[in-house]
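I'll show a sample.
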Amino acid sequence: SDIHLIVDEWHSLLADYGFKDAVIDKLIQSFSEYKQVIGLTGTYLPVPHPHRRVKVTQHRDEIPVTIVSYNHLWSAIIEQVEARPEKTHFISLYDKSKRLDNLQALLEKRGFETGEIMPFNSDTTDTEEVQKLMVQNVTKDDTEVVISTYVQGFSIKDTDYMVHIAPLPGAQHSPTDIAQVAQRFRNTTDLPINLYWNFPPPEKSPPTDREKYLSRQKTIASKQIRQYRKDFNLGPEETLTSNQKIMISRHENTRKNDTENESDKVNLVRNDLTPNDYQINHNVYSVITENIYKQRRHMEKWLNRYGLTVEDEVACPFELPEAQESSSAT
């Protein structure tokens, strides 16, 4: 046969195999009737069980992604947008709350006209500009910034975009989400993509900011330690016994498992048990560094599987005056 078969959503051969095995088996058996079978997917999956029945040659577009570390998310995004005025900017927030309106308001304060900013979420799907994007896969000529809460279900043909993928509290992009956003731009794999890292590595953070963080963690840990001393009825000069330290460690281990956001403070209390300035600072630095780079390595590993290569990091450590009112978004 001279017919080529194209199968979209190729990953469904695995994802749906558990309840569609008979249909998928018949589909795979028919592959031999075609000159070539091409599977299309933006979702990473290893070559799985049903695929082993056919020879699979994988081809992936290599898309570069730049990590942007920041102290304030809105400031970092605005700084990067203003640095590339020749580009149309696509900002993926992956968040359906009022934060989209908040960012739009801040951009308008920086001089962008309302008509130059295109909100793209469930509230704007019926607007003329969004319909043009969904049907024709292009934006209006005067659009400078698109702020989106969608990661899939649309395509963009234009090639002069710069993409900003930004995490928010409780709305982090998974590696699949990042890959989906990067692959919405069908006509190029060479567009600049920024992935904003939600906590800057300590060595890239201004010293004053790190000192404030260390001071805050030290205060919280010292308060917790004082509470333990009070619970044990210890006087000012009395020290904790070995058994008391074991009890505290066990309790703090439980606290860490139950409340992930308290992990930094928990480590300080459990490991120090006394407010030792040097040790607390050292522990906080170690905890931050270990957590950040562990997350970074994990993210890089999965992005590479999707064909996204992580490039050198850009630091945006400062805060724009217009972004101060939205500090809760960091």
